[in-house]
Write a structure and sequence with these properties.
The structure holds two protein chains of two kinds. By secondary structure, chain A is of the alpha/beta class. Helix content of chain A is 44%, strand content 11%. Chain B contains five helices and two strands, in the order H-E-E-H-H-H-H. The chains are: A alpha/beta, B mainly alpha.
């Protein structure tokens, strides 16, 4: 704080790594090895494109395009790759359709295999020993703990992921969403509903959607 | 005109896995985003293979867990990137030290500094951090 900056730009001293990062970037820009706006673009791509939003886009499209839905259920890996979300070599993605009769839920009992190209990295609870063992033995109880109370008539299917096959749930489209655009639909789709531990949000729960 | 997200980068696991919240990347301070973007951009431009950087990152994390356990993920990331660029002779240690010092003293400034310049915690102990 004791050193005033010539242009008054930074009121607080920057941390050492912050200074070091600036120095490195500035040297590389000066040498013409990278442009600052390229770095901006990289950061924004990675901030917005990795994570559950990819999965939400896949589900929203399946809700609005019957042909894509069909394709997705027949060959998830291929349909998802067609949207530009490409997985690590060898990992197949299988999409499980929820219906009024069947509810699917995904686990990896051995470790934490997860369809990361569509869902990002797994949440901590997904990796926990408790979830991994209990969801197989008492799925309805575990789902109730997540706030999902299923009617006794609904069959619960638990799917165990492996290094070769990763599962993603295609939830049912909520009622009262007929008028929503694909983008608005995507905002209703959470990571948890694609793992199968919750339902999509209702349009009323998302402010601004469909108004 | 940027490349899409690289599966190789997004899927790093174990100690090298990118810090995330609900699947999305988390940067605790703006510089962390710059350091991330810089390493990825240089890789996209073909300066190195991602696995070369990842290898150095993993090594750096292992070292730091012993020698400097309070250091953060992106401090280790930045150290790995520095090491790679120094090894390749892309930058020299003297240039880097001098440029850092110029920024520290305010001799040099530029305009990428984010506007929301919050007071991030300064509780890491690095030589040269203390300016007064």
């Amino acid at each position: 704080m004791s050193q005033p900056h010539p242009n008054g730009h930074h009121p607080e001293p920057e941390s050492y790594p912050a200074l070091r990062a600036r120095a490195l970037e500035s040297l590389l820009v000066e040498k013409g090895l990278v442009a600052s706006d390229v770095i901006d673009a990289v950061v924004s791509t990675y901030e917005s494109d990795i994570g559950p939003m990819n999965g939400a886009k896949v589900v929203a499209r399946a809700w609005t395009e019957p042909e894509f839905r069909q394709q997705l259920l027949e060959d998830g890996t291929e349909a998802i790759a067609g949207m530009g979300f490409v997985g690590r070599q060898g990992a197949e993605i299988v999409v499980l359709e929820n219906t009024p009769q069947v509810h699917n839920v995904v686990v990896c009992t051995l470790c934490s295999c997860y369809p990361w190209p569509v869902l990002g990295l797994p949440p901590t609870w997904y990796k926990s020993a408790a979830y991994r063992s209990r969801v197989v033995i008492e799925p309805r109880t575990v789902l109730r703990e997540f706030g999902l109370d299923l009617a006794p008539s609904v069959e619960v299917r638990v799917w165990d992921s492996t290094a070769e096959v990763r599962y993603m749930v295609l939830p049912e489209r909520p009622a009262g969403t007929e008028h929503l655009s694909e983008e608005e639909l995507a905002s209703l789709i959470t990571r948890d509903c694609m793992i199968g531990v919750s339902q999509p949000l209702s349009p009323a729960a998302v402010s601004g959607v469909g108004r | 005109m940027t490349s899409p997200v690289s599966p190789e980068i997004g899927s790093m696991d174990g100690a090298a896995a990118l810090p995330r919240s609900n699947g999305e990347l988390v940067f605790e301070a703006p510089w962390e985003g710059r350091a991330f973007g810089l390493a990825v951009a240089l890789n996209e431009q073909g300066m190195y293979q991602w696995r070369e950087f990842q290898q150095l990152l993993v090594e750096r994390i292992a070292e730091a867990e012993q020698a400097d356990p309070s250091s953060t993920y992106y401090e280790r990331w930045l150290a790995a990137l520095e090491r790679l660029l120094l090894e390749r002779g892309v930058v020299t240690p003297d240039d880097l030290d001098q440029r850092t010092e110029e920024y520290r003293t305010g001799q040099r400034s530029d305009d990428w500094v984010p506007h929301d310049h919050d007071d991030h915690d300064h509780d890491h102990h690095h030589d040269g951090e203390h300016s007064n």
